[in-house]
Design brief:
Thrombin, subunit H; Pdz3 Domain; 6-stranded antiparallel beta barrel; 25 strands; hydrolase; hydrolase activity; EC 3.4.21.116
Length: about 400
């Protein structure tokens, strides 16, 4: 009887272990990305709670690639292994020379002109709203009116004045789709009106994340510039990097994020912004913003929970290194945010209360590598905020 009981317990323990193992395999299958960049000559390894290693897939095909900057790489297939032996899934591994980027941390001025204009409000004129009645909605991006490209508020006013009661053909974008509508303006208070407010530009303060000395490319902010009313990403027509003078700082407190306060110190253009996207702002600078040495790029699978530093400038002068902790890392491709960063440096906590608006883009350094950038502050706990992988930003800088 005792032997049978022991056998049952052993069988139950084995079954539980197998179920746990399969559960771990299923979790990592969904949680881990299907592709990785690795430094040339190195093997793919992941810093996960349970050890994940890799080996070349049985049917491994290697492809030589060259990006637009002339860097060569090789793409092949690898099998991820749990505990060094249990297959999780096959992934693509791209082997390339590890990029060297100058970590920045300087505040920079942002000037953007939109590609078209964004409808930010609809209002009644003379008892009705012509724009709403013809199908225009808040958040729409107006590209042209009566065949003429629209670039400013003045362009909209002129198009409405010209077409009058004859109607105006409006071409716009909504959710990435093109639409064409016919707007019939209303004559009210001595002029023809459409009943809509539009925005054609934006300006603000952010932080530079990195500079590529070989190409002049930069990445900054770590998140897109969005319209303050519609919350949609501003469609970029052209943009410029301007010199900014920090004039003050409002510290963060629980429930109230602070901000850097500044103003453009002149009309001098320091660089060109060519891309506004989910990963931030990208373009080219005329010169390297400071004399710091370039650091190797850290790939997402190399980041670990623990001590790190950020570079940030709170007074417009040279950036200062502050201690932080990386508390959470999400490698999944569906992740809304890549990292959680906790400010631990008493100097920064005393001066700012944690993260303030304007620090977005502050580079995160760990183990001598550029691994990410600060992007958002937690409203209920400004000592913590979200971050983005530097690797994702560097990929966008290649094509900006």
């Amino acid at each position: 009887m005792k032997i049978k009981t022991k056998a049952r317990r052993t069988a139950a323990a084995v079954a539980a272990a197998v179920m746990g193992l399969m559960g771990a395999v299923g979790f990592y299958d969904k949680a881990l990305p299907d592709s990785y960049n690795i430094a040339g000559g190195e093997e793919l390894t992941l810093n996960t709670f349970l050890g994940i290693s890799s080996r070349p897939a049985r049917k491994c095909y290697t492809t030589a690639l060259t990006d637009i900057s002339g860097r060569s790489s090789h793409s092949g297939e690898s099998t991820l292994l749990l505990f060094g032996s249990v297959p999780v899934k096959n992934v693509t591994a791209v082997s390339e020379p590890r990029p060297m980027l100058v970590p920045c941390g300087e505040a920079f001025g942002i000037k953007l002109l939109t590609d078209g204009v964004i409808v930010v409000e609809l209002t009644k004129v003379g008892g009705s709203c012509p724009a709403r009645e013809c199908g225009i909605r808040k958040g729409d991006i107006i590209i042209s009116m009566n065949g003429e490209n629209i670039r400013s508020n003045r362009d909209v006013s002129e198009a409405v004045r010209t077409c009058r009661e004859n109607g105006c053909e409006v071409r716009l974008k909504r959710g990435g789709k093109d639409m064409t509508l016919t707007l019939m303006p209303t004559y009210c208070e001595g002029s023809y009106k459409a009943g809509m407010w539009v925005r054609d530009s934006s300006a603000g303060i952010g932080t530079l994340t990195f500079y590529d000395a070989d190409t002049g490319a930069f990445g900054g902010l770590g998140h897109p510039v969005c319209d303050s009313d519609t919350k949609e990403i501003l469609p970029l027509s052209e943009g410029a990097v301007g010199d900014i003078e920090i004039t003050g700082l409002v510290p963060s407190a629980e429930g109230c994020p602070g901000q850097l306060v500044g103003e453009f110190s002149g009309d001098e253009v320091l660089g060109e912004i060519t891309l506004n996207c989910r990963e931030g702002l990208f373009g080219t600078l005329q010169n390297c913003p400071d004399d710091k040495e370039a650091l190797p790029l850290g790939y997402k699978q190399e980041i670990v929970r623990g001590a790190a530093q950020i570079y940030s400038s709170l007074d417009g002068e040279n950036p200062v290194a502050y201690d932080v902790e990386i508390e959470h890392i999400d490698l999944s491709e569906s992740a809304e945010h890549d990292m959680v960063v906790h400010i631990t440096d008493p100097r920064l906590l005393k001066e700012t209360g944690g993260i303030v608006q304007g620090m977005s883009g502050s580079p995160v350094i760990q183990n001598g590598r550029l691994v990410g950038a600060v992007t958002h502050v937690f409203i209920d706990d400004p000592t913590r905020g979200y971050g983005i992988f530097a690797e994702d930003m560097a990929e966008k800088a290649k094509v900006s």
